[in-house]
Amino acid sequence: MGSTPLPSTRPTRADAARNYDLLVSAAREAFAEHGTDTSLEEIARRAGVGIGTLYRRFPNRTALLEAVYVDEIQSVCDRAYGFAERLEPFDALAAWLRSFVGYGISKKSLAVELTAALGKDSQFFQSCKVNVQEAGELLLSKAKAAGEVRPELELMDIMRLVGGITMGRDMEPDEANRLLDIVLCGLRPAAP
Amino acid sequence: MGSTPLPSTRPTRADAARNYDLLVSAAREAFAEHGTDTSLEEIARRAGVGIGTLYRRFPNRTALLEAVYVDEIQSVCDRAYGFAERLEPFDALAAWLRSFVGYGISKKSLAVELTAALGKDSQFFQSCKVNVQEAGELLLSKAKAAGEVRPELELMDIMRLVGGITMGRDMEPDEANRLLDIVLCGLRPAAP
DNA sequence: TGCTAAGCGGAGGGGGCCTCCGTATTGTAT
DNA sequence: ATACAATACGGAGGCCCCCTCCGCTTAGCA
């Protein structure tokens, strides 16, 4: 009905961009210190920004998590390719899963959100899943080709299982590694 | 200082006992319908009881969980002995773990609380842990003796891993069973 | 029937989630 | 330099939850 006022989308306002960064930084710190269930009001307070501003930018906690962790999740995926180059097939897969577990522990409850999200349909998590899948599938298929992983296993099952490891709270790193070792044994083909 | 008025502890009053039962029933239903994070006020409402009454009886959510699930947890433990009698060592262990997973799925988030509690120090959960440990250890040691499980594995690690399976939300039963199969393979000794 | 320990229930303080809208700021057009 | 939208800000307020505290009620003994 009304005339489309300006077809060209205006660039983000300077103050908006500044506050966005402040919020993501504050959230990153707060999540690291107190876990991902820090109250959003606390985060707004830390960022020196009104709660309204936070909610305008990030409609819910998940949106904020996405912004905070997008880089790190990407880096987890990227690591897969390094392992694929430098290590033998099974070792590469094992190393990647181990780094996945280690990451999950250090970031506390992120792994919970993440693993739960492997079956969700948020925009972001979808594309995240694609990345993880691509990286993991590379490692898995190599390991299968080398005859070191049973061919019928599905990547997503493995990921879910590994993700579950970090979900029990307060997992010690060596504890988690023991659990992962059991899983890794479970991947190998039965003796002929 | 004052005279101990009545050394004999009076029996619980009838209304108190009645309300206790009402609360546990209401909680059981509510937990089944909406998961264990149903608000306690909602539960009191369902029970037709004041919130104060709930809190006097159950100082926190965990206490209520305990009351609701004590029977069922016991029955999970008991099942172990049945399996031990009727099945071959490894199959008995597998069956028990499978029933554990199945139980966890049906009761939604109870498994989360439970598995987390395997490393906690609440009175109740301690004794629960003892029961689980006793039952599980029986099955595990038989399976080890039969040479079907690697001897260095610890029950608690296995339980934690299996518990993790149900933690990802919305796990389909057959999905969960696939994950459990991986774990079960991981228990077996490597080929000689 | 009377009395008191035991039990009841809900108001209220603290806090988190999220929305809404009056006010302030930015950047562009004149 | 100035005016004026478009954009963004921020916090009050509604709603819900957790949990505590204490004046009122009731069961059950004597």
From TrEMBL, chains A, B:
Domain called HTH tetR-type: residue spans = 17-76
Under the heading Pfam families, the entry gives: TetR_C_43, TetR_N
Organism expressing this protein natively: Kribbella turkmenica
Hydrolase found in the keyword field? no
Keywords on this record? Answer: DNA-binding, Transcription, Transcription regulation
Q: What is this protein called?
A: TetR/AcrR family transcriptional regulator
In terms of PANTHER family, this protein maps to: HTH-TYPE TRANSCRIPTIONAL REGULATOR BETI, HTH-TYPE TRANSCRIPTIONAL REGULATOR RUTR
The record places the DNA-binding region at 39-58
Q: Which Gene3D superfamilies match?
A: Tetracycline Repressor, domain 2 (1.10.357.10)
The record's section on PROSITE patterns has:
HTH_TETR_2 (PS50977)
GO MF annotation, one: transcription cis-regulatory region binding
